């Protein structure tokens, strides 16, 4: 295709897309008005019938909890897929060699970076746990807190402590934790079917609004998601780290 | 729309444009992180703190780390290729 033809095609497509966007935005309701009926109904239902103070978590883990089950399993399958694909390309021994080389290099990590990492990891873990367990009360929940916790584990690596990371995240333990988080959510969903009338039926006592254990299954599911997301994100990122450590993508043996 | 919301929308537009105009992938990982932070402030200004938290952990932790690790992997591949060329007679 000639340059001129590509230019015409590109500009034409962009103009058509722009026209569609302008048309779509013109058809939107005015800014802030009117609210749909669910904007009023959903917070009332989760507050009055479930005693959940944070309406967003109430919707995610109760009214639309089945959707969240799907999302949770998507992350589980993504972690599984990344692990299977990346691990097929290398032998375990090669990674250990690469890690030893990295260990020697990491000795050059500046003290300032090590100190900063050591100082921040503790508060970050605490923040992550806080966000996970307070999902029913304040903004946040399993997903947000889980990524914060995975970030804290990664910070240990960034501070040049590869040995410490191996101790913090033994890969098999992370894998089991990932599966346990996904299984916990599924079992809680099925518990509704066994002890209640339908899947995701909230059969635990709903507690007092504003207390840590309010909302029945909501905080339980938030913690299950927190565990699953922490392990899933850690697994994906540590597979990426292992790939990076393999100098020359395993072709080193040939030379 | 409040003044704060207008300012946030403008900041998102500026940061998004800056991300597109950054050509070096390494620098782009940083500008994209900044873009993510402006987006999370925007969500907060529009009264969606849960989405703001999700946005800040994804744009501040997950995405930059993946991009940086991928770039580091490309660099080690390039180095290995250079070594092979040096070894060749």
Blueprint of the fold:
The complex is a heterodimer of chains A (255) and B (89).
Chain A: H1 3-26, H2 37-50, H3 55-63, H4 65-87, H5 92-106, H6 111-133, H7 142-158, H8 162-168, H9 171-195, H10 217-245
Helix pairs in contact in A: 2-3, 3-4, 3-10, 4-9, 4-10, 6-7, 7-8, 7-10, 9-10
Chain B: H1 3-21, H2 25-45, H3 49-87
Helix pairs in contact in B: 1-2, 2-3
Walk me through what this model shows.
The complex is a heterodimer of chains A (255) and B (89). Chain A is mostly helical. Chain A has one domain. In chain A, 73% of the residues lie in helices and 0% in strands. Chain A is built from ten helices and no strands. In chain A, helix 6 (111-133) packs antiparallel against helix 7 (142-158) and helix 9 (171-195) runs antiparallel to helix 10. Chain A is globular. Chain B has 89 residues and is mainly α. Chain B has one domain (3-87). Helices cover 89% and strands 0% of the residues of chain B. Chain B has three helices and no strands. Chain B is elongated, with a radius of gyration of 18 Å. Chain B starts with a helix and ends with a helix. Classes of the chains: A mainly alpha (255), B mainly alpha (89). The A-B interface holds A 31-32, 54, 56-57, 131, 139-141, 143-144, 147-148, 150-151, 154, 233, 236-237, 240-241, 243-244, 246-249, 251-252, 255 and B 1, 49-50, 52-54, 57-58, 61-62, 65-66, 69-70, 72-73, 76-77, 79-81, 83-84, 87.
